């Protein structure tokens, strides 16, 4: 298969104007293929040669202006169109197309709960070619008119309002000009809830087996959708540009969601069938806000080429968090938060959950600028690699810093200029920066060069000169004292940061460790080298980037760090606590803070933490990285004991039932960290955690997975659990459990399913891979470390980028933290058969492995 190059796209865009696609899809032709008939009306500006893309099971016929062409001329995914004359043309292509089981193209899923089948499209990057023929590049926007023939009893959804026309036929209203990758169709016996807002039809949809769970959350989802819609219309001058707004929660979706105009698709794990925390509900709300932002930035105005993908994702990431913080639920909403902002602290979750994703990506060999040079994205295969923490989290952080420097008024004015000038068209980074510059006197072009065209993370370090703190903690400005702050920068970017100065204070019940904010002040880094002098004693704690408005590592002065170790939970602002926890996280990863110290700090302070996002973020890093990867084998028993004791502390703290979200987090992590099966068996047998919660499907499968790892369950028990929960998530749970069993037979069967069988769907593949590699099972899995590389290379070549990404992410031997494993992986990178998607994942995984070895080496005793 040929990937599209940037040069080819530019040439084709100079030759063609594409006016309209008329597409007929027949979904009644069988379980393996569907029929796709496409008519493309286009105009050639000059005579020449070009090509159209399609990936058919069978290309039945193709004709240009009524003249039949030879289907045998199809070369991979390209059909050559030679000798095109200047003027209007009409191309017709009739083909049978394969359904997908990997979430690419037209994905087909049969629900094991009730046997109902659903299909939906995911056409990103190059996968439109799996559904219909197209001139497939983002800057050849066109109108799309689609008819669908579906089985009786199905409902069809699309980018526009879909209407039944009889005998299973549906007509979807033609779109305004959009890019090929944004076309969407979803069909099946959907459970739908519809309403109207601002004169437009709104709908939410899921498969029938999830209907009770969607019904339970429908008011919340729709209220948040309306609130975000209204807030965007307060920010943006351009009105919502499409005729309806549907949100479909679809099975086995590879991404979190996809911004198809008028029909946003979400992974249906967002229809919660088990208990979740408010932080998880906030995440769902943020994804709703993120995807809605794309209706303007990405759909109304679309990138010209994939080097500017950050224009889509960074903007939506920033705007999703910011808008959710501002959006106010309608006063008529069926919610205790009606008339108020439902999630006012979204930036805490961004700081502790998303920002680390960007920091990690930016320190790997695969790092790239937020806005890479066009030559660095020469084709679609390389473009696909940039959907990472840099394009999302770092880019959003850069925009947040831009707003702090530019001011929100000028920022939004520039954005609205951008929409007005490029609506229903395409734009580049240069266009975006020019439009921002038109709204301000500041040098936005220089800012963009420093922030968007560079790689890596700056480090800001505080140095403080002052007398020791006075004995009396209640007189911060006594005795005419002063203190001086100098900030050094390791890096090249300008930063506007807020500095927070904190003093010790007595807690509400007289406990030490509480801190009170003395002052916050802004600082530009780098300055002129002159220390910033402030009145009063030296504060107990000085935090750079208080408020988390820039993107940089922070290093505290020694005295402030001593305060953190004793008083972190006493910092009054959760966003400041997120900055400090990120500092601790960075120091562990940089081998500047022993893993045991991080765990001890978590044990000391998490039992007093009130923000669920912080608890979840710190526990996830502690368990998944500090314990499982960074701790040496000699220290592992003590580390696991500390983690287990911490979870017990949190469970005890929540025994009164007042904090169900915190208790749920603690119970989940206790299950995952358990080294003995007795408590878990008791909970499973009794169907409840003592003192709550009762076991729902998620907790049952979590316990059963851990019991499988510990060798405390067996295949008949797993089979019985699957019989009790035959849902899609039940199948995934069973696959995870079976792969986790500590027997040679179980590992061999799982490996065969992953790398030989090729029948696993994308979700079942992921579940099996997650179960296979387990800390503590090295004696069973060591022989598979070397096998992983050639087997993954062959798998990726057979099954394509989606499964390659899953293999590199989930099937990688992450817990084999030793030099031999690293050497084997490094040598594997020399294999010329590596496809780009797998190579990128392996480069990242091996760099993380190298970092884990460095952390272990730093704490290992000298010989």
In short:
This protein is of the alpha+beta class.
- Overall form: globular
Would you tell me the structural class of the helices and strands? alpha+beta
- Radius of gyration equals 28 Å
Number of continuous helical runs: 26
End-to-end distance:
54 Å
Number of E-type strands: 28
**What average pLDDT do the residues reach?**
95
Main beta sheet strand tally, sense and closure = 8 strands, mixed
Portion of residues within helices: 40-55%
Strand content: 15-25%
Strand line-up across the major sheet: 5-4-7-2-1-10-13-12
> Poorly predicted ranges (pLDDT <50, ≥5 residues)?
470-476, 508-512
Give your account of this protein's structure.
The protein starts with 5 loop residues before the first helix and ends with a helix. Helix 16 (660-673) packs parallel to helix 18 (697-709) and helix 18 (697-709) packs parallel to helix 20 (728-740). It has 26 helices and 28 strands. By secondary structure, the chain is α+β, with helices and mostly antiparallel strands. A hairpin with a 4-residue loop joins strand 18 (257-258) and strand 19. The strands form seven sheets. An eight-stranded mixed beta sheet has the order 5-4-7-2-1-10-13-12. 42% of the residues lie in helices and 20% in strands. The model is unreliable at 470-476 and 508-512 (pLDDT under 50).
